[in-house]
């Protein structure tokens, strides 16, 4: 049996008046996802426990079969794993965004990506920050684009920190760090602002009409989690395909091999088809591949309705379509497509509502074949909800046939 999961990050949404009360998923042209929903099994997955904040970290742990209440220790340590950084037991890893803040008198979170600053530029800035702000206990590490990392040796982690994508357009003074160690973190952020204001790279960006990376924003802190590899639990060999450190880090903890794809960017210009082709190639020697696409989430954060629709259509045609066309070569397979959480256009951040999923199996008796289309409303109509969401992986790998048979009866 071959297993493929295709996850469109933040793909789910709320009904939008400009779309006639439909969601981007329901408006987008998605014949491949619709086929999976119609011929396979459609439902909702509840990935966010009530006591945790909605985010791709918590949600994707759920999708991969981990109870986030037991395994989640913060976003930072997951990304550290992807970057090959080993954390000592008392090290704390923080996600370190390069952000654009508004005017200094009452700065707002103008852009949590610094205008999608490039990885090359981020590397230059992070290197200079180490020389100016870093110390023996504080080190900065460049990641992908605006997504970077800070490690605080023997640091504090019981802090209240706010993800910058949750406060777009809001005054940051209302969301500053709180708790033990907050003073040190705030001082680092303020020192970064003073230094970055005069940084040559930012002056070049401003002259070119681009947004400056005029502050760091720290959040998602935590120590190394304790996670039993997915590959051990199910005695399978698998791979992770993603352009972002978060998913690759989760994959590493899950025992998955990180598979690189040329042109994978974590944005709408990513190499969609290349991800699918690499997955199919990997399946020749693997049992399981997880394909993650960040683009819909980015469009949700930007509040771009048409951008999100285009991202969904690209996933459908170039990823899901490519997989469905060639997966029969392996004869025995299950393919799942889903959203990890909604990133509603109206909120421009994550929401905790259940999201649609569809599973198509090569075995006819493993499909409900209800003739539904892939979308939020249809998934609710199906009456199938997997909650808590971390149970879905167990069903998908080990007991999908018995699960579907119960629904048939």
UniProtKB/TrEMBL annotation:
NCBIfam families: apgM, hyp_Hser_kinase, PRK04200.1
The name this protein goes by in its record: Phosphoglycerate mutase
Role of this protein: Catalyzes the interconversion of 2-phosphoglycerate and 3-phosphoglycerate.
One BP annotation, GO: glycolytic process
Family designation: Belongs to the BPG-independent phosphoglycerate mutase family. A-PGAM subfamily.
Membrane-spanning intervals of the chain: none
Keywords: Glycolysis, Isomerase
GO MF, any single term: metal ion binding
SUPFAM superfamilies referenced in this protein's UniProt entry, alphabetically: Alkaline phosphatase-like
Reaction equations catalysed: (2R)-2-phosphoglycerate = (2R)-3-phosphoglycerate
Pathway per the UniProt entry: Carbohydrate degradation
Domain Metalloenzyme: from-to ranges: 1-376
Record carries keyword Membrane: no
């Amino acid at each position: 049996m071959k297993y493929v999961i295709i996850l469109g990050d933040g793909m789910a949404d709320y009904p939008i008046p400009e779309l006639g009360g439909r969601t981007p998923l329901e408006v987008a042209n998605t014949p491949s996802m619709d086929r999976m929903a119609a011929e396979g099994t459609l439902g909702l997955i509840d990935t966010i426990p009530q006591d945790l904040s909605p985010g791709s970290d918590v949600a994707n742990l759920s999708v991969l079969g981990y109870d986030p209440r037991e395994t989640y220790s913060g976003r930072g340590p997951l990304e550290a794993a992807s970057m090959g950084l080993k954390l000592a037991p008392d090290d704390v890893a923080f996600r370190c965004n390069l952000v654009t803040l508004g005017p200094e008198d009452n700065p707002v979170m103008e852009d949590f990506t610094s205008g999608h600053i490039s990885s090359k530029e981020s590397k230059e800035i992070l290197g200079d920050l180490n020389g100016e702000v870093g110390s023996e206990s504080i080190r900065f590490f460049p990641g992908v684009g605006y997504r970077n990392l800070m490690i605080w040796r023997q640091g504090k982690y019981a802090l209240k920190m706010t993800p910058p994508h949750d406060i777009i357009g809001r005054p940051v003074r209302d969301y500053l760090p709180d708790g033990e160690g907050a003073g040190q973190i705030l001082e680092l952020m303020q020192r970064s602002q003073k230094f970055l204001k005069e940084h040559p790279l930012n002056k070049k960006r401003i002259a070119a009409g681009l947004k400056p990376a005029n502050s760091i924003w720290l959040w998602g802190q935590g120590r190394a989690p304790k996670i039993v590899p997915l590959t051990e639990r199910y005695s399978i060999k698998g791979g992770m395909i993603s352009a972002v450190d978060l998913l690759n880090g989760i994959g590493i903890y899950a025992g998955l091999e990180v598979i690189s794809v040329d042109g994978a960017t974590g944005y709408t210009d990513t190499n969609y088809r290349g991800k699918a082709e690499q997955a199919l190639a990997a399946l020749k020697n693997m049992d399981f591949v997880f394909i993650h696409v960040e683009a819909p989430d980015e469009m949700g954060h930007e509040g771009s309705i048409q951008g999100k629709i285009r991202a969904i259509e690209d996933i459908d045609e170039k990823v899901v379509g490519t997989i469905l066309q060639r997966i029969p070569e392996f004869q025995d397979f299950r393919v799942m497509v889903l959203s990890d959480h909604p990133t509603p256009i109206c909120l421009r951040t994550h929401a905790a509502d259940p999201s649609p999923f569809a599973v198509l199996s090569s075995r006819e008796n493993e499909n409900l074949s209800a003739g539904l289309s892939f979308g939020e409303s249809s998934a609710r109509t199906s009456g199938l909800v997997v909650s808590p969401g971390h149970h879905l992986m167990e069903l998908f790998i080990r007991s999908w046939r018995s699960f579907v048979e119960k629904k048939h009866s």
